[in-house]
Write a structure and sequence with these properties.
The complex is a heterotrimer of chains A (414), B (317) and C (276).
Chain A lengths: L1 H22 L8 E7 L3 H17 L3 E7 L2 H13 L6 E5 L3 H7 L5 H4 L3 H7 L2 H5 L2 E2 L2 E2 L2 E7 L1 E4 L1 H7 L8 H10 L7 E4 L9 H6 L19 H15 L14 H6 L3 E6 L3 H8 L7 E2 L13 E8 L6 H11 L2 H8 L20 H8 L11 H16 L5 H17 L2
Parallel strand pairs in A: 1-2, 1-3, 8-9
Antiparallel strand pairs in A: 3-11, 4-5, 6-11, 7-9, 7-10
Helix pairs in contact in A: 17-18
Chain B lengths: L1 H27 L2 H27 L2 E2 L9 E2 L3 H8 L1 H32 L6 H13 L2 H11 L6 H8 L17 H25 L3 H9 L4 H29 L3 H6 L12 H10 L4 H26 L7
Antiparallel strand pairs in B: 1-2
Chain C lengths: L4 H30 L20 H8 L2 H33 L5 H10 L9 H10 L6 H25 L3 H9 L4 H12 L1 H17 L2 H6 L8 H7 L8 H22 L3 H8 L4
Helix pairs in contact in C: 1-12, 2-12, 3-6, 3-9, 6-9, 6-13, 7-8, 9-12, 9-13, 11-12
Classes of the chains: A alpha/beta (414), B mainly alpha (317), C mainly alpha (276).
Chain lengths: 414, 317, 276
């Protein structure tokens, strides 16, 4: 036992030494290292690595150190590192987080820090740019944008005798029930009750969360059109044409769609890569979101913005990296793995994958969600309303009235 | 061996004198503190200091980016937490979780230990297999249960339906009250093996002679169990009660994963998962810290009460 | 009392019955990891796969980093375990067999460490680790894992050491030994089973830990297995086949450690005094 202990002791000392040696950060004496955090999927991460190589060749004094995070814990990881004064220099983050982090003082104000900010800002789509605006200032730049469109399973449509995907909401409602048969097949499925899921159809049917100046939501989220929009989906659900998975613990939309359980889902461009790896035999078909009230307001804007930490020690280099990410070269490069570019100059470009067309067209009418630091809590309020009406605990009007009250409370808090 | 017995004799005789000398040596000696040093350093750095820091934060409206700008709000965070219906609900959920999983683990664990407490072929295999859930991480186990309790294609529904117990599939993970069932089952399932091993150790410490004497007196199984086994297991069971209760109140990872999708509307939180949401999603660090201290206080009081009222010395009669 | 044959049969029946409940989730895990993606959620669900595919395992191993994460976990768990055994043994020895002022108070403080919800310490622990330059360094994981285990393992070993026969200690003292010799030559060798328990508990903890590992490691190259498993999840899609394939692979080392040390396990628990 004695010798064993001694052996254990020395081997542990050795292992510790090895661990320390291998972990000492290696830094070239003169180059600056910029840390960049993201939640890219695996194919996107690989592409990013190549992009970084290209950037480093052009900028030999700057080294980019990317770190991939799991989406679910990303916010927590960012917060903890900010708390520890270890925030990454540059981050790619969900567009709806920007106002919240800006309010905390975590972000560098870009329109003043970046000399040619205006030139870049003019070159990007206005919708995505607006998601970086808070309190009269710009806190980031859009890195990539996306939206949701209708995915329809051609095989199931053919079997039901429907030739084309629905173009109007009325057709959509009709088709959804025609494509439903008990629990073996549902016409439509949502990913959940969080706002992102019903948002495309909600906006399409004229729904609004707040007024344009973002001062009040009473009369908007519980206004005539919004209530009608939710009522529409509620009716479909009650008729059994929408899958019950949206309340949680069911079969996911991506999988259900590919296996023929859900005839239609609404989702984003990342589905192409997902289906390529997981369901290579499935042919995904895209179509614009069915039009409801008005023709200029379908679907919802998503995407990621690139932001810089307020505490970065290498501001000029960080800004160089940001600028590079906004260049046509970088935008086209990342587009190859499904990241829709934000530069309006690239619309219709032949270098973009073919399936981008339907998304970029949809972006012309896609609506932005509320850019406010308390958006998460507002999302929760609408989520709660949707859940309660689905469970029959409240009517659509009652549930949305409650949400309006909550959101107004959040808007009032400065 | 005879050398050792000689030494033992000598030691017994010189024990007194030695004892005095020992004491004197030890009082001049820094040895104990040297032994404690490495552990103490780590403990202070990574437990004591963080605890104090966390306590301090709990009295502020804490800004993580610019801590200097944090506002001292006294006990407001604690009051806000206590009057918050979501926090109150999380306490209720945690208590229910504890009330179900702790007895569950102890009862099933004891039952399994009783079954394992004999020499028979395959005994080690059974013991190892029962311990499998214990060595599997909470993350993996929660994913497994989410899969099994899937509302549309899960095995649990399928089995219940084929047994004719339900007609429609139950959407376990969609309802804040129903979801407690997979969560508590998960908690019990994961802990039975651990509990069984500890009870087994306790059982093996009970001298066989007691049972033999009882058999001579004509005692049956039930009497043996109630009058010999249980009383002698008491310290083990009390220990389990305290440790399992602490564990139950600190339930975290399983609740965290289940609450991810957000459609349980903050009604299915445990105290720690609500703390996590307050801190890392609502950026309310001060209140998060207050909540964790409230929980620590509850844990402390409950453990204290349990030990005080249940710990008793066991005597062989 | 518990030794007659009909009892034996009953034993087997009940044990096997209970085992079904224990094992079914694991069978599902292995089964789904071997099922082609399309069958993950077939209705009605099948316990055993109709078709077997090694795709998920190939995908999971092909992302070369899996071996790297596996190695990281292995390194961290092994070093954490060795260090914890050493440090908590030292502390346990002091508390069990030495006399010094403040012994009871210090021990109580140590025990309080067992009641703290670990997750509440993450942010301040991060601050300390940053100042000590332990972030993004596997050593940072090791140090925190050792600390979090100190209370429980010291408690256990104290029970073990207190059970060492007094006269053996005195005999060694007579031979002119000091505390260190006593520790090394008498107490430790006799405490094998107790140490086995500590090894199992600590290895388990270090291997399965998630919250701290995720927050403290910046580089992808420094990740451990639980973090890697979490990385497989997307907001809208969980790739069950791959997640379970990774889980199966992740289970193997802990299982091996447990099997290697488990023959001392029950005996070890007895010596810790946990049983009473």
């Amino acid at each position: 036992m004695n010798r064993k202990l001694f052996f254990l002791f020395t081997s542990f000392i050795l292992l510790t030494l090895i661990a320390t040696v291998f972990n000492a950060p290696v830094r070239a004496a003169e180059s600056v290292t910029i840390t960049y955090w993201h939640t890219y999927s695996d194919p996107e991460t690989a592409q990013l690595a190549r992009l970084i190589d290209m950037f480093q060749k052009d900028n030999p004094n700057i080294k980019i150190e990317p770190t991939k995070y799991a989406y679910d814990d990303y916010k927590k990881a960012i917060l903890t590192s900010i708390a520890g004064g270890q925030a990454p220099d540059v981050m790619r983050m969900d567009i709806v987080w920007v106002p919240q982090f800006a309010k905390q003082g975590a972000l560098l104000q870009l329109d003043t820090a970046m000399p040619d900010f205006k030139k870049i800002a003019d070159a990007v789509f206005p919708g995505p740019l607006a998601t970086n605006y808070w309190d009269g200032k710009y806190w980031g730049l859009p890195q990539n944008t996306n939206t949701q469109v209708l995915l329809w399973n051609q095989k199931l449509f053919d079997a039901a005798g429907i030739k084309e995907p629905p173009e109007t909401v009325a057709e959509f409602v009709d088709d959804a029930c025609k494509l439903t048969s008990g629990t073996k097949q549902y016409g439509y499925a949502l990913g959940g009750t969080y706002f992102w899921a019903p948002a495309p159809l909600f906006y399409s049917m004229g729904g609004k969360v707040t007024d344009d100046k973002v001062t009040t939501s009473t009369g908007y989220v519980n206004g005539k059109e919004s209530v009608a929009a939710f009522q529409n989906m509620l009716d479909l659900y009650k008729k059994g044409c929408i899958s019950p998975n949206l309340l949680g613990g069911g079969i996911g939309t991506a999988q259900g769609h590919a296996t023929g359980l859900y005839a239609m889902i609404i989702d984003g461009p990342w589905m192409v890569d997902i289906y390529k790896t997981d369901y290579p035999d499935f042919k995904v078909r895209f179509a614009p979101i069915p039009v409801g009230m008005g023709t200029n307001n379908s679907s919802v804007v998503g995407g990621e913005n690139v932001v810089v930490s307020a505490t970065t020690q290498h501001q000029p280099e960080a800004l160089t990296w940001v600028k590079y990410l906004m260049s046509e070269k970088a935008q086209l490069f990342m587009a190859q793995v499904g990241a829709i570019p934000v530069l309006s100059s690239l619309t219709g470009s032949k270098d973009l994958p073919a399936y981008f067309e339907v998304f970029m067209n949809q972006l012309k009418t896609a609506q932005a969600r509320v850019a406010h630091p308390s958006w998460s809590a507002m999302d929760d309020a609408i989520n709660a309303a949707f859940t309660k009406m689905l469970k029959g605990e409240k009517t659509a009007q009652e549930a949305l009235d409650e949400a309006a009250k909550t959101i107004d409370g959040l808007l009032a808090k400065k | 061996m005879s050398q050792l017995s000689v030494r033992r004799q000598v030691s017994a005789q010189t024990n007194q004198a030695l004892g005095l000398r020992e004491q004197r040596i030890q009082q001049r000696n820094f040895a104990p503190y040297l032994f404690l040093l490495p552990g103490a350093v780590l403990f202070v750095l990574f437990i004591l200091w963080p605890m104090l820091y966390s306590l301090r934060i709990s009295f502020f409206q804490w800004n993580i980016v610019k801590p200097e700008t944090s506002v001292n709000v006294g006990v407001q965070n604690y009051l806000d937490a206590l009057t918050d219906p979501i926090f109150q609900r999380s306490v209720v959920n945690t208590v229910i979780y504890g009330l179900i999983t702790v007895p569950g683990q102890i009862i099933f664990g004891t039952f399994v230990a009783l079954l394992l407490n004999a020499r028979f072929p395959g005994r080690t295999l059974f013991r190892t297999l029962y311990y499998l859930p214990v060595i599997t991480s909470w993350v993996i186990v929660t994913l497994l249960f989410q899969y099994l309790f899937n509302g549309q294609a899960g095995m649990v529904n399928s089995v219940l339906q084929s047994l004719g117990l339900i007609r429609e599939p139950i959407r376990w993970l969609a309802d804040a009250r129903l979801v407690m069932i997979p969560l508590t089952l998960l908690g019990i399932w994961k802990g039975v093996g651990w509990t069984a091993v500890i009870v087994l150790a306790g059982l093996q410490a009970i001298p066989e002679s007691l049972y033999e004497a009882a058999a001579v007196d004509g005692a049956n199984l039930r009497q043996c169990f109630l009058q010999i086994t249980l009383p002698l297991l008491r310290p083990t069971l009390v220990f389990l009660l305290v440790v399992l209760t602490i564990g139950a109140m600190n339930v975290y990872i399983s609740g965290l994963l289940i609450n991810r999708s957000g459609n349980l509307l903050n009604e299915a939180h445990f105290v720690l998962t609500w703390m996590d949401k307050q801190t890392f999603e609502n950026f309310n660090f001060g209140q998060g810290a207050a909540i964790s201290y409230l929980l620590t206080a509850i844990v402390f009081i409950v453990s204290f009460v349990q030990i005080r009222f249940l710990q008793r010395d066991v005597m062989y009669s | 009392m518990m030794r007659r044959l009909p009892m034996l049969a009953t034993r087997y029946v009940f044990l096997t019955g209970g085992l079904v409940f224990v094992l079914v989730p694991f069978i599902y895990m292995i089964s789904v990891s071997l099922k082609p993606q399309a069958y993950t959620f077939e209705i009605p669900p099948q316990l055993f796969p109709r078709e077997i595919t090694l795709n998920h395992y190939q995908e999971v191993l092909a992302k070369e980093n899996l071996l790297l994460y596996f190695g990281n976990s292995l390194l961290v768990a092994t070093v954490s375990t060795g260090t914890t055994v050493l440090i908590s043994a030292l502390m346990a020895y002091a508390f069990a067999l030495m006399k010094f002022r403040g012994k009871n108070v210090l021990f109580s403080i140590l025990l309080i460490g067992m009641m703290i919800p670990p997750v509440m310490l993450i942010v301040p622990q991060f601050l300390v680790a940053k100042d000590l330059k332990l972030l993004n360094n596997l050593l940072g994981l090791i140090v925190v894992y050792v600390t979090m285990n100190l209370s429980m393992q010291t408690f256990l070993l104290r029970g073990v050491f207190a059970g060492v026969p007094r006269d053996l200690l005195d005999a060694a003292l007579i031979d002119g030994g000091n505390q260190w010799t006593l520790f090394r030559r008498v107490v430790l060798p006799l405490s094998g089973p107790g140490i086995a328990v500590v090894v199992i508990f600590t290895f388990l903890y270090s291997w399965d830990e998630f919250p701290w590992a995720h927050v403290a490691m910046k580089e992808t190259a420094k990740r451990t297995l639980p973090v890697a498993i979490a990385l497989f999840q997307r907001p809208d899609l969980t790739e069950w086949g791959q997640v379970f394939a990774m889980s199966v692979i992740a289970l193997i080392p802990v299982l091996l450690v447990y099997i290697a040390f488990q023959r001392y396990f029950v005996a070890g628990i007895s010596t810790t005094g946990l049983k009473g």
